[in-house]
C-alpha cells in the first residue's frame, strides 16, 4: 500500500468509528452528558456551596476541570474497548485483518475514533460547565496538550483491553474496578493537600492525578503536582501502551488463531 | 506459468496441539475454478484461513500470484478476496456502507468504491436493499453481500468457503451462474462446498483433503473417470412383480414401476435397453442414482479413514 492508500484506510476506519458512536448517540453521547450535569448540580451547587473554597477557589470551579477530564477519560476508553470488542464479537474485525491495511493504521484508526468521542464529549461537557462555573483558560497549550495526550493514552488502553477480552464481562471489569477508582481518587473532587501524608503520597502513584492536575492547571492555573511530571508520565504510558498494542496486533493475539 | 496460488509443505498445529494440516502442497492455476473438498474438520477452513491471513501457519510457504504472504503481505492480500463460511460483517451497518468501507481498507477512493459497490450490489440483486440494516436481510442476501464485499477490490483470486450453505436451490443456481461469469472474466476461484453437485458442475480441478493431508489432487474429468460403477434408476411403463434378469447387470426392483441397474466401467447402457426391450419392458425415464463425485468422495475419504486409523475402530 502506498501512503495515499494508507491514508484512505485510516480515514475509512476513523469515519466508521465516528459514524458508529453518532449512530448510537443515546448510548454514547447522552449518558455522559447527563452524568456530568448531575455531578455539577450535586457536587458543584447543592453540596459544593456548603464545602466552601478548595485551593482558594469556589468548589464548583475547582471540580469543573476534573469533571471534564473524567468524561474525556471514560469516553475515550469506552469507545475503543466497546467498538473493537464488538468487531471481534461480530467477527467483522476480519474485514480489516484480511485487507492489506497495516496494523499500525488499524491501531491509529481505532485510537483516533476513541479520541474523537473523548474529545467531543469533553467539549460538550466544557460548554455545559460554563453554565455552572465561570473560568477562563490559564494556558491553552497545556490544556490542549494534556487533554489530547490523556485521550490518546486511554484510547490505547481501551484497545488493549478489547484485544484481551473474550466476553462482554471482560470489557467492563477494567472500567469498573480500575478506571473508576483511579478517576475518583485522582483528585477530581479534592486537592491531595487535604489528605494525610500517607494517602497523599499514595495518590502520587495514580497517573490520573497528574492528568487531572495538569488539566486543572491549564484551565484555572492551580495544581497539586509539577505539571512537567504529568507530561512525562502520560507520554511514557502512551508510548508503552502504543508499542504494546502494536505488538499484540502484529502477533494477532486473540485475533488470529 | 505462475500459479495463482502455490502452497508448499503447509503445516498448522493449533495451541491445543491439534494438527490441522500435516504438510500439504497445492498449486492452483491462474483462471482455474478449483474445488477444495473434504469432510468437516479435514483442514479446508484452516487452509483458507492461512491464505487470507486469519490463521497463522506453523510452517510452510504460501504465495499468491508469486507474492509470499509473509514477506510481501500487502501485495499478496491485494490479490485475494474471501467469502467466509460464517457471516462476519457488522449486522448493524447498511450493505452500501459495508462495501464502501471494505474498499477503503484496500486504499480505494470513495467515489470508485461507491460505483463498484453499486455494480456488485446490482449484479447480486441487493441494490434495492443497500440502505437497510444488514441484520434485516435474509440468509441468502447476507451470503450475496459477503460475495459483493469480497469482490469490491476486484481480486484476481476469489476464495469461497461454503458460499451456498443454507441457500435455497434457486438462489444457489443463480449464484453459480454469477460465479461462472466472474471466472469467465479471468478471476481464479477456489471453492469449498458440501454440495458435491456444486463442485462437479462448476470446478475444473479438485483437491480432496482429509485429516490434514491432500488425498487427491487432479482434474475433475480425471477423477470422474476413476468411477468404475454407477447406479441408474429406470422408470418403466409396465407394472413389474419381480426384477427382470439382465445378463451381466445386477437389477433391483424398487417398486412396480422402478428399477435400479448397476453399470460397471466398460459396459454399455444400450445393452440394458435392448435386453429390456426383448422382455417387452419399456423405459420411460432414466437418471443416475447418486452424484458421481459424491460416490468417489466417500470412497476416498473412507479409504483414508482406514489408512489413518489402521483399520481399527476409533471409538
From TrEMBL, chain B:
PANTHER family the UniProt entry points to: ABC TRANSPORTER ATP-BINDING PROTEIN, ABC-TYPE MULTIDRUG TRANSPORT SYSTEM, ATPASE COMPONENT
Stated name of the protein: ABC transporter
The keyword Protein biosynthesis appears for this protein: no
Molecular function GO terms recorded: ATP binding; ATP hydrolysis activity
Taxonomic lineage of the native organism: Bacteria, Pseudomonadati, Pseudomonadota, Gammaproteobacteria, Cellvibrionales
Taxonomy, superkingdom: Bacteria
SMART domains: AAA
The UniProt record lists the keyword ATP-binding: yes
